[in-house]
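Lay summary

Proteins are chains of building blocks that fold into shapes. Our project writes down both the chain and a compact code for its shape. Here are two examples, one after the other.
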Amino acid sequence: MSDMPETISCTWEIPLRATVDVAVIGGGSAGVAAAAAAARNGASTVLVERYGFLGGTSTAGMVGPFMTSYTPDGKRQLVAGLFQEVIDRMVAMGGAVDPATTEAGSAWASFIELGHANVTPFHVEALKMATLEMVCDAGAQIRFHTSFVDVVMDGERISDIIILDKAGLGLLRPKVVIDTSGDGDIAAKAGAPFEMGRREDGKMMPVTMFLTIGNVDDARVEAWMREHETLHPGERLFECIVKEARERGEWTLEREFLNLYREPTPGQWRVNSTRVQNVDGTNPDDLSRAEIEGRRQAWELIRFFRSHCPGLENAQLIATGTQVGVRETRHILGDYVLNGQDVLEGHKFEDSIAQCSYPIDIHDPQGPRGRLEGIHADHYEIPYRCLVPRQVNNLLVAGRPISADHEGAASARVIPPCYATGQAAGTAASLSIQQGVKPREVDVTLLRKTLREQGAIV
């Protein structure tokens, strides 16, 4: 038995790196929008990102395409503003297809109808550059290769953020903090209440290792799907092939069909078909297991594609994500909790800062399928109160961990709403500093007016 203690106490002298108006922690979709919005509205802003590029799960996780930013019938855009600006930058680079031109049920949408009109196919490298340019052009400072460590609290206010970079530990001293970490890490450390996964048992949706494949016979894949849609309406891509392979013991993944999304480059498709269950994305041991299993499954898919799937006989693995894509961890509890009924019934709010229409999309935490249920309205709205966590006075949350239950988050978690809540949080943070008030006390009428003037749809 070792006599070493289980924990040790240390005293650190941590240097102050910067004093800023707004610190945005996490350079994913919400963080990019929050940092750009805060800086454009006059706040000195720093964006902290652990990788050497921006984009979060869309780049590091290769999660794509962006899901719908339009109404279910595809006739009206719902998420614009900074989200559309990123798309415009990628389209100009030849790295994306504008969602105004993509149709439900097409190869761009993995031949899925419900909730998949007006998706945005994109190249990861184009997104890295487009987001970088937007944040830099806005005047925000970016601290790459920098990790969040902890918060220093002064009552119910965050006084400092402790970070770790190549120079060691450091402090950021912001007036307002925006948590765009994806998992609500900053809010949790600051003492904001939260729930994990679904309310009844804490189970969370599975994680996925995305991959991109090339050398695909596009025409043959689409011909197979057209033929089987005629014979078996509602059948998903290669579903009968997967079913037969499972019965023969030639398929082991927790999936009943394949999700393949065509990319802008001919012969190249994004694959969303791996699935690792029982992963807590806030647990490093679980994440390590998920990375190992996700990469194993990626190569299992490549072998399956080549041996079973028409049009994929010569498929080549181009890339896997730098990290697994995590769908769900903490739901930070705010002044309002968006719920499944709000989504399905299209509820509207006086303090709305975003409009969305993506279905409730729950990947079964314990099985191979899930639930995809479309909303019963033109759209639903996300109120500003979902960005304002309880018990912390100078903090906003944007992106995946906003205040929503398991069902509400199953819609609001996708990329377009993350950009929308990020733009709202960044704008609100700047306004709160200008007005000399806490973020929850911001004039919401002025916030909505400012967002509209800057291209957002509220």
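And here is the second example, written the same way.
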Amino acid sequence: MIQIYHNSRCGKSRNCLAFVENSKKEFKVINYLINPPSFEELTVIIEKLNIKPIELVRQKEKIWIENFKDQIMNDDQIIQAMISNPILIERPLVIMGNKAMIGRDLEKVAEFIS
């Protein structure tokens, strides 16, 4: 089953969700702003994405700029910052089995879920 970590206020996230809905594949929507992932869940997602935690951070968000931008942080601290402030998590996240992607490009989403 496809999981989508979704922010309904984000146009890219809404477009991705609509695309997956139209694919007729089974999916589950996770509103990560209301139900943020745990430290362990986010760590697994980052592993599935095959990226460093900092690559999942929305670094232009006001919260990041004001509270974290100039700090020297290790990976665990970056993950904790995203859990404490889920708006910092890049979206939408599309997860299928052992793979995940940031679903901002619908062509790549199509390839990913096919």
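What can we say about the second shape? Residues 11-22 form the longest helix (12 residues).
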